[in-house]
Amino acid sequence: MASHIRTASLAVTAALTAGLASATPPAHAAPPPGRAGPTHLVFEKNRRDPATSRVRLVQTGTGRVLADYRAGSGQGGTAGRDECVRNKGWLPDGTYRVLSHTTRKKGGRDGINGYAIHVGDKVCRDGRTQRTALFVHSEMRSDGAQGIAVPGRDSPYRWDGDGDYRSLGCVKLAPADIKNLFAAAQRYGWPASLKVTK
Question: Where does the record locate the signal sequence feature (predicted)?
């Protein structure tokens, strides 16, 4: 009798264990369709031409590039390649925390509008100069639409051409590219950090 009870008890335990195992996915299970797991952004500087640098959305751990775009940072020239020159130089090398993202930033005429990713402040290589108010953004109105062309002038609400890849230090993408980046981040997972490298 004890033998039958022990056998029955083992059978029940085995069934329960099997049920739990099937309900809990293995730790290495693939992400749901369209999800890549943790991601981060990489801004790769082009020292020869900062306006033809690259921004990539990358799967953390594997290094798989999920999206890749032309981008710029800084004003170009010698000062534009100096990470310690505020409002002219490109972003300092290093890792930044992504603080927030929005498709409707309202910065007004002298600010950033529409699609924008806010990243943390960074002290440059001199150990003193802090770069602040840093974003990955474009040029558009706060609703994401393009503003009206202004003959003979560069509009802050409109992408007017290659010159708009220049910035006061932020990373800038063309409007269609930043919208595509937001869609890719929504699909694969929002990046937690931005890595800036040469």
Answer: 1-29
What is the pTM for the complete model shown?
0.82
Q: Give the rounded distance of the alpha carbon of 128 from its chain centre.
A: 26
Give the Cβ contact number of residue 1 at 10 Å: 5
Residue-wise DSSP of 168-190: SSSEE--HHHHHHHHHHHHHH--
Q: Per DSSP, which regions of 10-152 are E strands? A: 39-44, 53-59, 65-73, 94-105, 114-119, 122-123, 130-131, 134-137
Tell me the CATH number of domain 39-196, given options 3.30.450.20, 2.40.440.10, 3.40.50.1100, 3.40.50.2000. 2.40.440.10
pLDDT tens track, the chain, 198 positions: 444 444 444 444 444 444 434 333 333 334 455 666 799 999 999 999 999 999 999 999 999 999 999 999 999 999 999 999 999 999 999 999 999 999 999 999 889 999 999 999 999 999 999 999 999 999 999 999 999 998 888 899 999 999 999 999 999 999 999 999 999 999 999 999 999 999
What are the structural domain ranges in the chain?
Answer: 39-196
Q: Would the CA dihedral through 182, 104, 90, 61 be positive or negative?
A: negative
Tokens of 93: 């090398």
How many other β-carbons are positioned within 10 Å of the β-carbon of residue 6? Answer: 10
